[in-house]
Amino acid sequence: MESESLYNLLQLPKVTGPPTEEELPQGEKKKYLPPTSRQDPKFEELQKVLMEWINAKLLPEHIVVRSLEEDIFDGLILHHLFQILTGLKLEVEEMALTAPSQRRKLEVVLEAINHSLQVEERQLKWSVGTIFNKDLLATLHLLVALANHFQPDLPLPTNVQVEVITMESTKNGLKSEKSVEQLTQCSTDKDQPAREYYCTLRGSVPLGCVLTQM
Predict the structure, then answer these.
(1) What domains lie within the chain, and their CATH numbers?
(2) Where are the alpha helices (DSSP H) in 39-98?
(3) Beta-carbon contacts of residue 162 (< 8 Å; ≥ 6 apart)
(4) What is the C-alpha to C-alpha distance for residues 110 and 151, in angstroms, rounded to an integer?
(5) Buried b or exposed e, range 141-156, using 16+ CB within 10 angstroms
(6) CB under 8 Å to 167, separation ≥6 — which residues?
(7) pLDDT at 4 (0 to 100)
């Protein structure tokens, strides 16, 4: 089966809408990916490359990831992927069947991953809560970080950015704000050290990135 056909078979579509006022407690925020962002070709390509990379790594374990949005949250995939990438063994239960045990396992696995990536906590774009709640953006940030660290030659599509709507529940109702989130580097040159990118937004139109040398 061709790679493209396999990806289309495995990537189960998920239709989601923005959270309602009843679903979002007052004072909390939640990011929402509109359909136009989900259908962006580069966004879809990023998921395809990451999924093929993970499935290739997990092939000896006979584990198949069918959806990055649905299959990563409980820590099982991340557990096996981390052990394969690092050669380290994590002392966590293999099969966590209840939500509390799945969350505990995910917490242990993410702590090990964050330590291995040597990313400061304030710089993390994912958390136990966001991964466990199947936040696709947080999951992609985590997987991109793993790929860049352990397999920097993986041909991830460059300058992948998506429009994100942040919903906030206030005493006056739901408030929304648009922004652009950067998922991969602006430059194809991954060997350039210590670069940062900045993205600007005018209305809902991304103006691209400006690279600055640190």
Answers:
(1) 3-27+35-157 (1.10.418.10)
(2) 41-58, 68-71, 76-86
(3) 33, 37, 40, 43, 137, 180, 181, 183
(4) 18
(5) bbbbbbbeebeeeeeb
(6) 18, 19, 24, 29, 30, 31, 32, 174, 175, 176
(7) 44
Nearest to 132 by CA among 186, 83, 69: 69
Is residue 80 within 8 Å of residue 61, measured between CB atoms? yes
Q: How confident is the model at residue 1 (pLDDT cuts 50, 70, 90)?
A: very low
pLDDT in tens, 113-159: 999 999 888 889 999 999 999 999 999 999 999 999 999 999 999 99
Per-residue pLDDT reduced to its tens digit, 22-76: 566 676 778 889 999 999 999 999 999 999 999 999 999 999 999 999 999 999 9
Q: C-alpha distances in angstroms, 28 versus 25, 31, 92, 141, 200?
A: 6, 10, 31, 21, 25
Q: Which two tokens stand for residue 120?
A: 């400061």
Q: Which residues contact 131 (CB under 8 A, 6 or more apart)?
A: 72, 73, 78, 106, 110, 138, 139, 142
Tokens, residue 189: 């040159």
